[in-house]
Amino acid sequence: MRKLFFSSLAFVFLLASCGSNSKSKGELVGAKGKKWYPEKPYGMELIPRGSYVMGKAEEDQAKVLNAPTRTVTVRSFYMDDTEITNSEYRQFVEWVKDSITRTKLAILADELGIGPEDEGIGEYAFKDTDTSRISVYEKYMLDNYAGLGETGYEGRALNTDVDLVWDTSEYPDEYYAEVMDSIYLPEEESYNGLRTLDVTQLKYKYNWMDIEAAARAKTGRRKDFIKQEELRIYPDTTVWIKDFEYSYNEPMHNDYFWHDAYSDYPVVGVNWMQAKAFCNWRTKFKNDDQKSRGKQFVNQFRLPTEAEWEYAARGGIEGGTYPWGGPYVISDTGCFMANFKPQRGDYAADAALYTVEAKSYEPNDYNLYNMAGNVAEWTSSSFDQGAYEYLSTMNPNIGSGQNQRKVIRGGSWKDVAYFLQVSTRDYEYQDSARSYIGFRTVQDYMGEEDSTSGKRNGLPSAR
């Protein structure tokens, strides 16, 4: 019987081979799939590949001696045209808040044995509560993999088809009210008649693989290089007070992140690890939509390397001191070109006291705003004072997991002009959040659709 089974398999394989030959006529034509025409990421600009002189070609006024010049080459990539704004980061926070709330509702419904047919909190039960409405594959995954984790609910699908109710007067039942009550601070910690969300519950969990470590390892299994992260993602709004002694900045602490007046301002109070988590979420958020539409996944959003950041900041002006060229910070019309600390501390001289909206001042020649001033920006690179001596000349980067000092670039609203120079290096510890550090993301370029011919263009070069 077993012989007959394998003979049948061989026969089926033979038929399949014959079928594929009939289409390719025996020629090596490649594994044909759907044509891939990626769209340009929203809010990003294409930075063409090219070479430039990285480091301080001009005078090193601070005498830090940590950026000797060398010619390097970087590949093409997309970069956000502005720093990530409060509004954009709030989208991340809202997504995490909704996910945690839905999970709490689904777990309580499961514990009570309530399903969609029971209405109330039952409408938020796990989708697999009614197994007749899920696919064969989803049922297989549920039976074999769901619950393999700390809570026992991992792998179960949330019901996102029903909107959450935030108005207390419209809660559907007492169980729903119980869950909603648990995500706010206790009554004794509230004041002015307002109950505040308990932001310590807003945690984002994700996995990533240390590809570089895996590639260099001589032994080890794939799972040995898969890392799991779980961290609080709400910005530290207290940085506006902690960063400045003997200074009144309480209004910025109270309003800057959540108020609509600051929606288009760059998010601050986000440490390096939170910025990395945002990149992971942005990739997931986009690919969830790609999957729902039957489209191929996009590659990951990430923080730029130090070399990519400097190349983009230069805007194609190889010898420029600042993103606009330089060497001056005042335009021909007498206006300051960026938001920083001019004239020995006259913060208001550049028309701004703290940060400004992300699309302020003139962009550089790559159409990137505020690559100098406003907020300094996290990069993915670790800071080593002597890095330029041994870095590769192609896509240079140091991504040491042991080095917690991460490179920040661009200077900020509270910095003097020296830190706005495209070649100036600085750093901050990865677990530190500041009122003057934000970030923007990049995505590797893999081609784009030509609207005139419908074909994918090749990789662009610098002008």
UniProtKB/TrEMBL annotation:
UniProt cross-references to PROSITE patterns, sorted A to Z: PROKAR_LIPOPROTEIN
Keyword Signal: yes
Matches recorded under InterPro entries: CTDL_fold (IPR016187), Glid_motil-assoc_lipo_GldK (IPR019866), Sulfatase_Mod_Factor_Kinase (IPR051043), SUMF_dom (IPR005532), SUMF_sf (IPR042095)
A Pfam family reported for this protein in Swiss-Prot or TrEMBL: FGE-sulfatase
Keywords: Lipoprotein, Signal
Signal peptide: 1-22
Domain Sulfatase-modifying factor enzyme-like: 44-442
Record flagged with keyword Lipoprotein: yes
Source superkingdom: Bacteria
Protein name: Gliding motility lipoprotein GldK
Organism: Flagellimonas spongiicola
Gene: gldK
